[in-house]
Known about the structure:
Elements: H1 3-14, H2 19-28, E1 33-34, H3 35-42, H4 46-58, E2 62-67, E3 70-75, H5 78-103
Antiparallel strand pairs: 1-3, 2-3
Amino acid sequence: MGKTSYEVKAKFIRGFSDKTRLQILESIKNKEKTVSQIVDDLKGNQSNISQHLACLKGCGIIISRQEGKYIYYSLRNAEIAQLLDIMEAVFVQVEEEVAACERNDELDCCPKQ
């Protein structure tokens, strides 16, 4: 696998690496929603949510469709929903280790490049 392919995969995975984006994905996992509905679900502000939606769309994780004056957002496909389920199952297994890593200021689990 070439370096470019890994870079594209890393960009895709980056879409999942933010708390707000994960909350958005959970919000639209089973049903498409408008920005307003997502903002209500997350109790966030529209500008911030819209920026995260643009990121998720740019990473190929979600799609949108316009109906009248509303834009509806949904997961790109069922495999993205399955990926979220798998990530949750793995997280349950490693949650304590990840939490311990976050509590230890001297240990950076994933150093920034």
